[in-house]
Amino acid sequence: MAITDKQILKKIILECEQALQNGKTREHAKAVQTLADLLLDSGEQQGNKSSSVNQITENEWRQMVGNKPIKQTEKVELDEDTGGSLLDF
User: Fold this and answer.
1) What are the start and end residues of every segment in region (Disordered) (predicted)?
2) Residues 28, 26, 22, CA angle at the centre, nearest 5°?
3) Are 38 and 11 in contact (CB under 8 A)?
4) Most exposed residue of 12, 24, 40, 89, measured as fewest CB within 10 angstroms of its CB?
5) Distance between CA atoms of 89 and 86, rounded to whole angstroms?
6) 54 to each of 16, 40, 43, how far by Cα in Å?
7) How far apart are CA 41 and CA 34, in angstroms?
8) What is the pTM of this model?
9) How far apart are CA 42 and CA 49, in angstroms?
10) How is 11-46 classified by DSSP, letter by letter?
11) For 86, phi and psi rounded to 5 degrees?
12) Helix or strand or coil: residue 50?
């Protein structure tokens, strides 16, 4: 049975009301924090399910790696006529 966001929000409201009534604010605040984390985690999981591929935009990529140009290596062609080894005399 899945817990809906509405049920979590009702629990948060209930915890806040109880904190006002009995004065155990710290305990109820911790419960609210846990419920809010649960609510945020479930929202992230739903967001990940909706997008099958996480794509990074060009701006995000530049912020992560900077604007340094990619250094391309040159291919060196071996001269096959002279032999492939230094030990060939």
Assistant:
1) 43-89
2) 65
3) no
4) 89
5) 8
6) 37, 19, 16
7) 10
8) 0.47
9) 11
10) HHHHHHHHHHHH--HHHHHHHHHHHHHHHHHHHHHH
11) -75, -20
12) helix
Q: Could you tell me the sign of the dihedral formed by the alpha carbons of 34, 40, 45, 48, in that order?
A: negative
Tokens of 81: 């006529």
The structure tokens listed for 69 are 């140009």
SS3 of residue 70 by DSSP:
coil
- Going residue by residue through the chain (89 aa), what tens digit of pLDDT does each one get? 677 889 989 998 988 988 888 878 888 889 889 999 988 887 666 655 545 446 777 777 677 776 665 666 777 666 566 656 677 66
